[in-house]
Design goal:
The complex is a heterodimer of chains A (509) and B (83). Chain A is of the alpha/beta class and 509 residues long. In chain A, strands 14-15-16-13-12-18-19 form a seven-stranded mixed beta sheet, sandwiched between helices. A six-stranded mixed beta sheet of chain A has the order 2-9-8-7-10-11, with helices on both faces. In chain A, 56% of the residues are buried. Chain A is built from 15 helices and 23 strands. The radius of gyration of chain A is 24 Å and the shape is globular. In chain B, 49% of the residues lie in helices and 5% in strands. Chain B is mostly helical. Chain B contains five helices and two strands, in the order ααββααα. Chain B is globular. Chain B has one domain. Classes of the chains: A alpha/beta (509), B mainly alpha (83). At the A-B interface, helix 9 and helix 12 of A face helix 1, helix 2, strand 1 and strand 2 of B.
């Protein structure tokens, strides 16, 4: 890893504060970043303080005044160059993401590719920040709407996608004319530092002002509620738990700010009798065990028709038996470690709880020990038979546990499917058009993402990503998600010499 | 940060990092420390109060966690197991 760290500009001790162009001296606590892969310290971060936060916001405000005056397509050009820089560092950054977070190397590469993809998307978007025109009811009047930059966008990201979620937000915010303050997860700080090292040269070479892209690394004690309550930050984009998201929503809502929430999921696949079972098995294994069950879109529930339940269950157990669990950078590994020992404890609790509630473990559910597993963060992905109403099934456990349930009719399957508080991603495997269309209709899945013959995870950047209910309702990435980063203004222009009032109101003086 | 003992105002983040076994104990009492793999924000006392625990009960929880943690080293491995 040393050469990778060297390429990415990671030192033994790194500053946790950047204005995009310069790394600043900070005086906060020093934190060691430990890889869950082998328990070794990768490097250290000197974190920022509350005072640093104040300075960052002031600089960002100044930067916004300059950046918003740059034409959107020229802002898009900066994003294009950032995308190109990411292409150059794709392998190194992918390796660091893998080592620091624990996802396998292929997924690390995939995450950086997502950054590149959203950069490309945003470049095109920079020439398509369209508003509508309307026909006025008044003679010689014209109406239209336009989208203006919003200001400072606060981006709080979670550990499981250390870099991609920032890119989803930052690339669109940049073309929208906004500036960004990024607070990454305290578990994957080095990946954030590496990203800022990669973009630094692009920003300097193109004379982008300091303060357009800011990174501030600190704990929630230093930068938490104060960030959300800050009226100078019109939009907070938060990716993480429903628990913290609720808090963000409350604090931002109290000041009538805008929040974009990407919170927990409890995603399910419905396996119907007509499903292509081989496809369904592959999608399930990747969806449930991939990234060690630590994606927001991880498959956590399988709702299987009773006629194919036994055969599907047996095939799934057999497939799980073939999974190779180990170091995430090894080419043959399918499943890496959990992010922390605390996550392992959480996994163990869920395995115990599902059994206490009457469930049955069919595979895995244990903590792995011995050679290669010294970090204490490796577990055997778990398959459990359960009922939809179990307390533990209603919750999201961020670990590789998938719950199997039986259904008789499609209506029942959809009821089970929708019978959880979360509403992120969903899927049905079927070749029956009627079932597929019902699932996608308004009487079907209540999630923000609903797929047919594709698993719950692995979304493309072109669509709007997000979910309903306790998932928070936010949408980011593709489609028209860019609109949340801008403020809409409706304009009416009178090019007559009269002043007619709307609705025909007479008010003569 | 190295924390020697658990107190009511310890952040859940520090608790989960320094005493990971605490997560299981607290989960069994309805206090889920991790969500989406990240520690919830706030202190142990705040998390417990949110779940309806009284100040006396919070003190008892802290005492139990300290007693249990004395059986574990800071890496979360049982001293007994290490022997």
């Amino acid at each position: 890893m040393l050469d990778v760290l060297d390429h990415l500009g990671i030192s033994e001790v790194n500053s946790g504060l950047s204005d995009g162009l310069t790394w600043k001296n900070t005086t906060g606590e020093i934190a060691s970043m430990i890889s869950p892969a082998d328990g070794r310290s990768i490097a250290r971060i000197q974190q920022a303080t509350g005072k640093d936060y104040e300075d960052t916001v002031k600089l960002a405000q100044e930067a916004f005044n300059t950046w918003r005056m740059v034409p959107a397509p020229k802002r898009g050009e900066i994003v294009r160059l950032i995308g190109n820089a990411l292409r150059i560092y794709k392998d190194d950054l992918g390796r660091l993401v893998s080592y620091e977070m624990g996802k396998i190397y292929q997924e690390g590469l995939g995450e950086v590719q997502e950054m590149i993809d959203i950069a490309d998307f945003a470049v095109g978007q920079s020439r398509q920040l369209y508003g509508l025109t309307m026909h006025s009811e008044r003679e010689r009047h014209r109406m239209y709407e336009q989208y203006h930059p919003l200001g400072i966008v606060g981006v709080v990201t979670s550990f499981n996608f250390p870099v991609a979620v920032w890119a989803w937000n930052a690339m669109l915010a940049l073309v929208a004319g906004d500036v960004v303050i990024w607070k990454p997860s305290s578990k994957v700080m080095l990946s954030a530092v590496a990203v800022h090292n990669i973009i630094k040269k692009v920003l300097i070479d193109n004379k982008v002002p300091a303060g357009v892209l800011n990174l501030i690394i600190a704990g929630s004690k230093e930068i938490g509620d104060n960030f959300f309550a800050d009226k100078r930050v019109p939009l907070i984009s938060f990716t993480g738990s429903t628990n913290v998201g609720r808090k963000v929503s409350r604090i931002v809502g109290e000041r009538l700010g805008r929040s974009l929430l990407e919170l927990g999921g409890n995603n399910a696949i419905i396996i119907t009798p007509s499903a292509n079972m081989d496809m369904a098995i592959r999608a399930t294994v990747f969806g449930a065990a991939g990234t060690a069950g630590q994606r927001c879109t991880t498959t956590r529930r399988l709702i299987i028709h009773e006629s194919v339940y036994d055969s599907f269950r047996d095939k799934l157990v057999k497939a799980y038996g073939q999974l190779r669990i180990g170091h995430p950078l090894h080419a043959t590994t399918h499943v890496g470690p959990l992010i922390s020992k605390a996550s392992v404890s959480d996994f163990e609790f869920a395995v115990k709880k599902v059994q206490q509630e009457g469930g049955r473990i069919l595979f895995g559910g244990t903590v792995l020990q011995g050679e290669g597993y010294e970090s204490g963060c490796y577990v055997a992905p778990c398959i459990a038979e359960a009922k939809g109403h179990y307390e533990i099934v209603q919750e999201e456990t961020f670990a590789p546990i998938v719950y199997l349930m039986k259904y008789t009719s499609v209506d029942e399957a959809i009821a089970i499917h929708n019978g959880v508080p979360q509403g992120l991603s969903s899927s049905i495997f079927t070749t029956n058009m009627l079932e597929a269309e019902q699932f996608l209709s308004h009487e079907g899945s209540d999630c923000g993402i609903a797929n047919v013959n594709i698993g719950t995870s692995g979304a493309e950047i072109g669509g709007a990503f997000g979910g309903e209910k306790e998932t928070g309702g936010g949408r980011e990435s593709g489609s028209d998600a860019w609109k949340v980063y801008m403020r809409r203004q409706t304009n009416t222009i009178n090019y007559s010499t009269n002043l007619p009032l709307a609705q025909g109101i007479k008010f003569d003086i | 940060m190295n924390i020697k003992s658990i107190h009511r105002d310890i952040t859940i983040a520090d608790l989960a990092e320094q005493f990971p076994e605490s997560v299981g104990y607290l989960s069994e009492r309805g206090i889920r420390c991790l969500r989406c793999g990240e520690p919830i924000w706030g202190t142990l006392a705040e998390a417990a109060r949110e779940k309806g625990f009284s100040e006396t009960q919070i003190k008892q929880i802290v005492d139990v966690l300290n007693a249990r943690s004395s059986g574990f080293n800071s890496q979360g491995k049982s001293k007994t197991q290490e022997k």
